[in-house]
UniProtKB/TrEMBL annotation:
InterPro entries: aa-tRNA-synth_Ic, Rossmann-like_a/b/a_fold, Trp-tRNA-ligase, Tryptophan-tRNA-ligase_arc. The lineage of its organism: Archaea, Methanobacteriati, Methanobacteriota, Stenosarchaea group, Halobacteria. Its main location: cytoplasm. One of its GO terms (biological process) is tryptophanyl-tRNA aminoacylation. This is Tryptophan--tRNA ligase. Residues 1-38, 431-457 are annotated as: Disordered. A motif ('KMSKS' region) lies at residues 414-418. It comes from Natronobacterium lacisalsi AJ5.
Amino acid sequence: MSGDDPHEETPETAGTTGSESGEPLPDGGAAGADDVALDPWGSSTVSDYRKLFEEFGIEEFDEILEVVPNPHYLMRRGVIFGHRDYRPVAEAMQNDEPAAVLSGFMPTGDPHIGHKLVFDEIIWHQQQGADAYALIADLEANAARGMTWEEIDEHARDYLLSLLALGFDPEEGTLYRQSANRELQDLAFDLGAEANFSEFQSIYGFDGETDVSHMQSVVTQMADILYPQLEEPKPTVIPVGPDQDPHVRLARDLAERMRFFKVSEAYASFELEPEERDLVADFHERLDPADFDDDTLRCTHVADALEETPLSDLDVDAATLDSVLTKLEEGGMEPLRPRTRFFDRRATEEAFDALIDAIDGEKRVYENHVDAFEIDRDEAEELAREVEVENGGYGFQPPSSIYHRFMTGLTGGKMSSSVPASHISLLDDPEDGYSKVKAATTGGRETAEEQREKGGRADECPVYELYAYLLSGDDDEFAKRVYDECVGGERLCGDCKEQAAQLMKEFLEEHQEKREEVEELLEEADIELESPRRR
């Protein structure tokens, strides 16, 4: 989750893929890639962003863009290409309801233009009314990267200055470092009770050689992700690169495991797996209770109807059918009725009793669950969360996430902090920034004549990415004009790079002036600038 260097070890694809019509497409990537691997500590391979939708369940951001209030240009241009469950955050901001944004930075080097994407995403959410959190992942930097506390402090200050210079409001937002936040560490301890080593092996590839402190840093990151909900549960988004998705998935799982109650739909006193429940729900709708002796639909009636239906007409496999038939036959003459189930996951006795009292209408109480017949699923979720919080629980909502593309290195291929020419630091001398852009690889043709005839390849051009991600700012028309002029053969690489280099120089000059202006603001901010662990 922490933004160590999201471009350090990760092969990139071009930031925007062009179509035959000359329009920039939001779903770019290298078509035909064979696989996708995600590793939050730097060995990720994201060859085709579209495969993330298929293999990891990341959803396309374009599908919810219309519900986002005042979408940021990174969203409009498809730089933010995917999300997990972002709709609750967007709707909360739209309705002026509580929401939060959080992301972290592992201070292992200078902040650069790749980190600016995350800075901008945090700041934009803050401007839309969300509670904003930015953290320095110093425990992770020490445990996973072996950074000294002195090195961490030096880089942390630079990250914070750039964040403030770009517009983060420390009076309205929260800044912290992992090592100095006791609330965070207490939460991490609680979360650690719900995680285990075999899970870390599966997700992160940890083995017998992995330091315990490295494993502990993962639990700390889970606490970071859930930290904005300590005071009250609310929709929370974590803006990251796709390599950090394993952290988000684990945090969503842990948020659920920490809940006192699980709310689900049921049809009888026994439990059904999701596919089994869908099958029973389908037959509950199909069958007419009036067709049976006592005008009541019972478990055995549905079992009989299922046995009479060819497997080829059912949207399940044979094993699922056998399982649901066994459960229904054991249920016998029990009436089959839809109900909302509150399952006791880890509630205290007092909380379980409070839940029973809070449920209005017809209900049935069992040892480990309560079935309610007059409350729908959404109402039940809110009631369960309310009872949990009132009885000392967290009531976490599963955190959401949005994912941005990696920027291609200026020299082509990956952007790496170990290759200065491949990236631009926010601390670079403006003249050096100008020179790096002038020397950058482009998507141009071999000759000017060929470029005019065939057009440039903006979708393969690191310089065009600079326009789309940074240099065009909020001006979509300018970004599109650069693209169209390139692919149309009107724009040649020399002039294009000169314009980009000049804009980059101006950006760095302005940014560094602002960094000086916010020095005092940083000193006054509520964050320890020196690690308490320094000796």
